[in-house]
Amino acid sequence: MKFLDQAKVYIRSGDGGAGSVSFRREKFLEFGGPDGGDGGRGGDVWAEAVDGLNTLIDYRYQQHFKAKTGMHGMGRDMTGGKGADVVLKVPVGTQIFENDNETLIVDFTAVGQRYRLAKGGNGGFGNAHFKTSTNQAPRRANPGLEGEERNLWLRLKLIADAGLLGKPNAGKSTFLASVTAAKPKIADYPFTTLHPNLGVARVDAREFVIADIPGLIEGAHEGVGIGDRFLGHVERTRVLLHLVSAQEENVAEAYKTVRNELKAYGGGLAEKLEIVALSQIDTLDAAARKKKIAALKKASGVEPMLLSSVSREGVEQVLRALSAIILESRKSEAPVEDDNRYKY
Ligand SMILES: Nc1nc2c(ncn2[C@@H]2O[C@H](COP(=O)(O)OP(=O)(O)OP(=O)(O)O)[C@@H](O)[C@H]2O)c(=O)[nH]1
Ligand SMILES: [Mg+2]
Question: Is-above-0.90 flag for pTM?
């Protein structure tokens, strides 16, 4: 899953409804004439930039989007109704490309922007339309025009700067929720998080994107648990925040388990800069803190930071530490072309 930020979709607008062949029939009217109505237009396919989305992950589960066919025309000059539209909701920052993944169709830069990707087919004319002075009773009507179909690419340039790692229940999602506007699911059972969540954190007037991924357990790199499917999402981050829950009986082992999975996964993850934090620190008294800090320090080789998303102890310091590393990393990098939405 290296391309969290891109998805291929197939769209098709609705066919137009057929025109109707019908004649007016009334008891005392001998030549009622044609009254077949036109078919309705097929539904359109739209894309719209909406608030509250920050990944294209939904498009991994649904890739086909079809608008509805227009209704057929009917007698008594009744035009068919328009087919229902389909709207692809995407986060701001999404660009939509042609099938070649190069030709830009639209670039969404603000919430509320809409773009019609495919127009529904026009409805066919009913026989009333074909009435002329020489042909008072036409028996022809047109079928509706076909909708358009297209294969498109959605791409989102939002890339996480910091990745959250840890065993299930480490408190990753709680941390994300406490420092960003993201609203990930949080619960006291493992694998609450089933797909990555992104959020934008702010500290000292700087912004960066944090990714929360499902917890890792032993054997994750072989697919145990939710496996390593989502590690790709943190591959391109500039720094990792490795959370070890203070509620773990053995914090050293918890730390090592995750480190081993990173090594087994490869992709340079094990070499990435890591901040180690003992999370949920509010659950420990002074004596237990001392013991667990020492154990984690020994296992990781660094002085762990202390953190509680509940009491907020240490949250600010952790954000600053992340921000400093991200700032350095951005400075050392050539400016990314037109990616200025999260600039320092
Ligand atoms: N006391 C306390 N509880 C916390 C803290 N952070 C998280 N928790 C609790 O720990 C449990 C797990 O939290 P999550 O944030 O869902 O953990 P996670 O690491 O995202 O877990 P997975 O998504 O399953 O990998 C929840 O019941 C949280 O309420 C904390 O700082 N203090
Ligand atoms: Mg979670």
Answer: no
